[in-house]
């Protein structure tokens, strides 16, 4: 069995366990390549039926428009159910306060909206496209990661996972984050996208865009970030390696307009994938701290 | 390309994280920003070398204490193979983590400190690999730099290990012995001049070449995870049993029986993700459709005629206990084997393993991190097989019915 085949089998087994063990699961869908891969796996898992759970998009309001277009297209094409949790609504309701200053981002505000959405819809399991190769704290993440009533992750309470046996038994009010593509690498996802001919948002491919330099990274110019007079700006060919909130996702200079070129670039890249995520760079252990309070 | 999962364990000071960091570094698996991060941190701590252990120690609490406290999954690859290292701590209080990390592995690296040789931890780790039936075991004697790369030191340790293997080793296991210095990259990725007396392959070449064994048991056992019933007019009668082949294989036209109902039928159709296939085998997912409208649901098994499995309501097993409240006769738990579940009651606990002497001692309960033997009574029969004959049907977890935590793991001996 090829590695991609092995990974696909493992992921589909996990997705079917979620549908079998939980009453009200959902799939967290950001519109990025990982969640598109996850959605495709879920569709395979339940063919010829449609997937037995809704997609949940936590919308920061700072999206790349290309991502939302594709999201809506996929939902319409496959007759999927989409639930949107809006960060803007939580800001308007005073549940969260927008960050200020030149590094302001809505990334961390997502957590409140996510937890509210889980509570509102009484989801007992939320599948996400996180991978263990992304970040050190993720390397210890379980496939079934139990969160308490407050959505908190506590490393000391994580259940041992033996063989392929997944224990999804929980108390009322608790929920489980599930990571079916834990064992995939960034390159596996790209190879799979090529193999399965999956459509991904166009911003993953090289395109002309105005960017500015901040902390040695090229950030997209948008309404959501404040660019200062002194910041170096230019119009150039870039692509994005991850699709996050526009205010904290840096671009990479690239001319790769085809999947093959992108795969070659990533295979030879000297920088890790999350190296372009400003949200991880805030402090040593930034990801771990966010996970503790209920981040994806 | 092939994927191999390797379990590592070792004590706090064996340099295990350094060894893994070294493998990552030398195979080009660390990116520039990660290396810069390690350089910065190493310098900040006043080290005159790269502290490669920083590449793996994931959690803040660990970084503060300088030790590893959980199972971490580390990825790297060479042109020949893809590796997933399940790295767990070696302390006695982390026996459960070691068992967990080793449960998905096909090979194990047992690390020793050349200055200390075989210690209790080595024996414990070795015993766990035997319990889990790991077929490829590498004893890596690290820190050879601190014993001047001395052949006699290595030979002494090797002799002690060979005695241990002779006394407690299972049949059909391959053992490898290799000296290394992870800190100075001697005999890790390439042969070492300082260890010129060693004629075996360097560690990386070894783990690239050891065989990955598959489950050879031919009991055809398919466990139902989910019943697919599309809510569409044209698929009104579609009833697909989606699940996983634990062992053996299933083909079109095969006569089968359902456990526990005992109803018999014939396979009409096999699908993989919506597409028809003729056969599915061990480890694969599939969707099985039967000629009759037989009732079966999640947790039931579809068995073929080659399935020679046990279905009794009692089984004896070796347990590894993973929670604070002990495993005591009379306690009730949920048992989960694959996706099958049953309530169970502990009938008796007979013994526990003294992991230093590697001998069974009489005991009537098992505490956190204990390994021992006992008997369970099942409320519903499950399909099972002794672990040594068919690991896919021979291991189970016990779930605490109050906390729902995974309380322990069991390896079936007889059912």
Put the structure in a nutshell.
Chain A has 296 residues and is α/β, with parallel strands linked by helices.
What does this structure look like?
The complex is a heterodimer of chains A (296) and B (415). Chain A is of the alpha/beta class and 296 residues long. Chain A has helices spanning 3-21, 33-46, 65-78, 87-92, 110-121, 186-195, 259-267, 286-292; strands at 25-28, 55-59, 82-86, 125-127, 144-147, 175-178, 207-214, 217-220, 233-240, 251-253. Chain B has 3 domains: 2-209, P-loop containing nucleotide triphosphate hydrolases (Rossmann fold), CATH 3.40.50.300; 221-304, Elongation Factor Tu (Ef-tu), domain 3, CATH 2.40.30; 314-414, Elongation Factor Tu (Ef-tu), domain 3 (Beta Barrel). In chain B, strands 2-3-1-4-5-6 form a 6-stranded mixed sheet, sandwiched between helices. A 6-stranded antiparallel beta barrel of chain B has the order 7-8-14-11-10-15. Chain B has a 6-stranded antiparallel barrel with strand order 16-20-18-17-21-22. By secondary structure, chain B is of the alpha+beta class. The interface between A and B is large, with 49 and 62 residues.
């Amino acid at each position: 069995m090829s590695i991609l085949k092995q990974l696909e089998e493992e992921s589909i087994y996990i997705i079917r366990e979620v549908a079998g063990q939980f009453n009200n699961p959902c799939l967290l869908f950001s519109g990025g390549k990982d969640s598109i891969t996850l959605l495709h796996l879920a569709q395979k898992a339940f063919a010829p039926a449609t997937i037995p759970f809704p997609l949940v998009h936590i919308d920061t309001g700072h999206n790349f428009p290309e991502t939302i277009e594709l999201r809506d297209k996929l939902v319409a094409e496959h007759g999927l159910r989409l639930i949107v949790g809006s960060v803007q609504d939580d800001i308007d309701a005073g549940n969260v306060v927008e960050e200020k200053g030149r590094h302001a981002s809505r990334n961390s505000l997502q957590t409140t909206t996510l937890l509210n959405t889980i509570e509102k819809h009484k989801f007992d399991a939320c599948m996400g496209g996180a991978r263990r190769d992304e970040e050190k704290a993720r390397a210890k993440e379980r496939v079934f990661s139990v969160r308490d009533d407050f959505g908190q992750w506590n490393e000391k309470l994580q259940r041992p996972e033996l063989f392929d046996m997944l224990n999804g038994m929980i108390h009322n009010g608790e929920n489980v984050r599930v990571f079916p593509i834990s064992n995939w690498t960034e390159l596996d996802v790209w190879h799979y996208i090529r193999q399965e001919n999956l459509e991904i948002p166009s911003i993953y491919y090289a395109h002309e865009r105005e960017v500015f330099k901040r902390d040695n990274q090229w950030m997209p110019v948008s309404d959501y970030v404040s660019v200062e007079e002194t910041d170096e700006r230019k119009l150039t060919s870039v692509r994005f390696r991850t699709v996050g909130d526009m205010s904290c996702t840096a671009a990479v200079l690239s001319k790769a307009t085809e999947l093959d070129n992108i795969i070659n670039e990533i295979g030879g890249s000297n920088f890790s994938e999350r190296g372009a995520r400003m949200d991880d760079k805030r402090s040593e252990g930034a990801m771990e701290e966010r996970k503790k309070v209920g981040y994806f | 390309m092939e994927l191999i999962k390797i379990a590592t364990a070792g004590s706090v000071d064996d340099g295990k994280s350094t060894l893994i960091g070294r493998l990552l570094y030398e195979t080009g698996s660390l990116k520039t920003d990660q290396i810069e991060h390690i350089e910065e941190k190493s310098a900040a701590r006043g080290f005159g070398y790269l502290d490669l252990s920083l590449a793996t120690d994931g959690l803040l609490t660990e970084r503060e204490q300088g030790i590893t406290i959980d199972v971490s999954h580390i990825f790297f690859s060479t042109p020949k193979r893809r590796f997933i290292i399940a790295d767990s701590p070696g302390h006695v209080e982390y026996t459960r983590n070691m068992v967990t990390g080793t449960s998905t592995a096909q090979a194990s690296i047992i690390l020793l400190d050349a200055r200390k040789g075989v210690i209790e931890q080595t024996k414990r780790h070795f015993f766990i690999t035997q319990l889990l039936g790991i077929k490829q075991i590498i004893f890596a004697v690290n820190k050879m730099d601190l014993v001047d790369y001395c052949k006699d030191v290595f030979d002494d340790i090797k002799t002690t290990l060979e005695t241990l293997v002779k006394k407690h080793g299972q049949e059909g296991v391959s053992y490898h012995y290799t000296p290394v210095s992870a800190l100075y990259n001697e005999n890790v990725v390439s042969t070492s001049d300082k260890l010129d007396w060693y004629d075996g392959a360097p560690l990386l070449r070894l783990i690239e070449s050891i065989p990955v064994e598959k489950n050879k048991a031919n009991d055809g056992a398919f466990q139902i995870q989910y019943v697919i019933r599309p809510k569409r007019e044209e698929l009104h009668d579609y009833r697909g049993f989606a699940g996983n082949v634990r062992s053996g294989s299933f083909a079109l036209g095969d006569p089968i029986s359902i456990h526990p109902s005992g109803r018999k039928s014939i396979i009409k159709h096999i699908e993989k993700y919506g597409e028809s296939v003729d056969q599915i085998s061990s480890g694969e997912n599939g969707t099985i459709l039967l000629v009759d409208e037989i009732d079966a649901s999640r947790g039931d098994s579809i068995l073929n005629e080659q399935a020679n499995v046990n279905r009794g309501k009692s089984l004896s097993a070796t347990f590894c206990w993973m929670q604070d409240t002990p495993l005591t006769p009379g306690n009730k738990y949920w048992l989960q084997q694959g996706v099958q579940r049953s309530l169970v009651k502990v009938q008796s606990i007979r013994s526990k393993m003294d992991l230093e002497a590697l001998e069974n001692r009489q005991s009537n309960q098992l505490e956190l991190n204990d390994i021992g033997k006992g008997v369970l009574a099942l409320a519903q029969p499950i399909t099972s097989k002794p672990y040594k004959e068919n690991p896919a049907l021979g291991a189970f977890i016990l779930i605490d019915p109050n906390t729902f935590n995974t309380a322990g793991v069991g390896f079936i001996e007889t059912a």
